[in-house]
Amino acid sequence: MNILIVHAHPEPRSLNGSFKNFALEHLRAAGHQVAVSDLYAMHWKAAIDADDSVDGAAGQRFDASLDSKRAYEGGRQSPDISAEQDKLRWADAVILQFPLWWYSMPAILKGWVDRVYAFGFAYGVGEHSDARWGDRFGEGSMAGKRAMLMVTTGGWESHYAPRGINGPIDDILFPIQHGVLFYPGFEVLPPFVVYRTSKVDEAAFAGHCERLARRLDGLFTDEPIPFRRQNGGDYDIPALTLRADVAPGASGFSVHRAHR
Amino acid sequence: MNILIVHAHPEPRSLNGSFKNFALEHLRAAGHQVAVSDLYAMHWKAAIDADDSVDGAAGQRFDASLDSKRAYEGGRQSPDISAEQDKLRWADAVILQFPLWWYSMPAILKGWVDRVYAFGFAYGVGEHSDARWGDRFGEGSMAGKRAMLMVTTGGWESHYAPRGINGPIDDILFPIQHGVLFYPGFEVLPPFVVYRTSKVDEAAFAGHCERLARRLDGLFTDEPIPFRRQNGGDYDIPALTLRADVAPGASGFSVHRAHR
Lengths: 260, 260
Known about the structure:
The structure is a homodimer.
Chain A: E1 2-7, H1 15-29, E2 33-38, H2 64-73, H3 79-90, E3 93-99, H4 107-116, E4 146-152, H5 169-182, E5 187-188, E6 192-194, H6 202-217, E7 235-236, E8 241-242
Parallel strand pairs in A: 1-2, 1-3, 3-4, 4-5, 4-6
Antiparallel strand pairs in A: 7-8
Helix pairs in contact in A: 1-6
């Protein structure tokens, strides 16, 4: 199968760099084709602006969404953007790999999402009306593909526990797993997380690699997170709130997961 | 009082640009000193790397955290970083203003956080031991200052309701409000949010400005979000999980808010 790793760490000799190399070799040894977008090595431009279209802004006023639509539809996107979209089309599975900085992605990876996720490609796909709110959250351009996060963090696992001070890791990652990956149609696997990075010695590294290997082996067979599909009947449209009889009385991120 | 607006939108004539201008004029008319960090106009560099110290990386291997510490302590930070830290020291209140892109900040603003929040400035502050986990979540360099988010989004308010498909707006903003603002000591006010931006005509804009004016008038008097202080007795240290007798049985982001 074809696998894209989007890697967002400034130092090749870092723990993240080592996990990336391990994943690359392990997947290739298993017979997969693997491409890596090493965002720092590529000097990836992080900020959306009018230069994201080779024509610049269409009007006097740059509109991040409408200018993205025009450039995407007209084949006038900046070549770095269309190259990443081609990799996403090619991939059967995508891995986003990053250190958790301030409870989210590093800026360079956020800028990959902001710019590559063009209108017409990752959003604004399908019919938008009062009866149907597009092909998203389970449908869309990435439908049929799988995705997984590989995340490292300096904090302890208990700090990210259900009652940990940082908030539960599943909730911290929800805007990425649900909002960035499930949105355009990816099936999202549970994340691979390494805590307390400063304490990872060689023995611990070997243990993490073993755990990672099992996760990579299950990339196309493990059960994805059972997020509810927007157009699967659980939501009222166009309010897009969970129907009153689905998980009645409950609220928060967790209600968007069908407990099966 | 001194107020810093960190503004992250590529188009001055956008709705965000208009709200920024309104806030600036309103606050100045009330007698405040206001500084604006207009990140796009400043061509803010988003990605952390070895160039963030004027000396480059100290070792053969760049370490985002340790190299940040060394540059901060030695006065060897890139001047764009120290200039923003000076503005934060000067400010009595800070407003982060941005469009919600993919359920988080635009990359350029994430890069402002990633780079300006140096080790020793925004984290790694205070005693770190098994008995005390630093001055953070309610204490730290920003203690005594206030902060507020000004956010716009294309989606409807119902999509961000407690059972809305995007997740509740309070939970989506938690990693920013709690993880970026409360962490170094800011008292965080409830956010100012404008939904469904494509439908904001002149009448709606005037209404939003009226609502914004009241929020700006209350910047130093409104009740902040009652996040629990890390060192206030509610958490077990060093596990940093909520004590068993505090909000017993509950979990998730909301348990870090004392319901008073």
